Target: Glycosyltransferase RgtA/B/C/D-like domain-containing protein
Amino acid sequence: MGTALGLFMAARLLGAAAVALAAWAVGEHPVLLLGRSWDSIWYLRIAGDGYGRSLRFHPDVVHSDLAFFPLYPGLLRAVTELTPLSGPAAGLLVSWTAAGVAACGIYAIGARLHDRAVATALVLLWALLPHSVVLSMAYTEPVLTAFAAWSLYAVLTGRWVWAGVLAAGAGLARPNGFAVAAAVLAAAAYELYRRRGKVTHRLWTGAALAPLGWLGYVLWVGRRQGDPLGGYFEVQRLWGSRFDFGLDALRFVRHLLLEGDLLVFPMSMVIVAAALLLYGLLLADRAPVPLLVYAGVLLFVAAGGAGFFECKPRFLLPAFPLLLPLACALVRTARARPWHATLVVGALAGLSFAYGAYLVVLAHKPL
Model:
């Protein structure tokens, strides 16, 4: 695991260095860009002042901080209370730490399903995704991935109570964190079927715990909004986020193909298309049920959701199981033709560092 974690840290430090160089070149401060931009600003305000802020742009466009789940701002508040760090620095500390914990969990899953070489390749590929710069920012994806990876590992190793507890934590991290609970519940149902109902109480406990984090926050927001079942989803609708089975995304893809747009948008289209292809390969490889369900739910939500098309690659960043087929292929290539694998990794690194710097410093679009 040490080699994988070292490669991960090196990749992310080089990515952060690329952002810093680009920021200094245009007169910006890299720490502020990484620690206080877009969603990070909302999380910092929640951490400092609690919930209750809304920005009204139109009767049907109201941005409320209730759209943001509470785990990350809670961690920020704890760090700023216990250390002398500022809000942005605390956000970066939480995110970088969570990214390292996630990398360890991803390695553990890869090693259990294949071997240490595939596990290392899986971690390295995750570190070099085009949007992996988000792992170096004060965003929630590293926290979600950390909880998700270790929850899925707990399922694969039969630690059902831990799986449920960690899934509940994932559900408090992000709206799409319910994908972890869905994976735990699907795995539990499969185990019940396979063992014809003869399972331990730990499985029932884990399955009961898994959705509590996500459900608890959604119901709390609903109660606060006066509509326990629909209040949270109304908050999301007023942000412009809703689920329409991909109709809005297809219309935007048509716009891109006919008229073009900024680099962020066609790149997002390519990444989502690649994710769909990789999920097909994951199915063909007969990956374990919890990994298929987890990655499938994340992909379904990202591809089928309306609004914020440029954010879809970020929503897919926690879907690391999609990289398993690529990790296996990279290891086979490295064993047969080491220089070919080196060139592939070098090209991925160049794309990741350059595109990450572009996204943070130059694109001026929500991540």
Remarks:
- The first helix runs from residue 2 to 25.
- The chain has one domain: 2-362.
- Residues 2-362 form one domain.
- The radius of gyration is 20 Å.
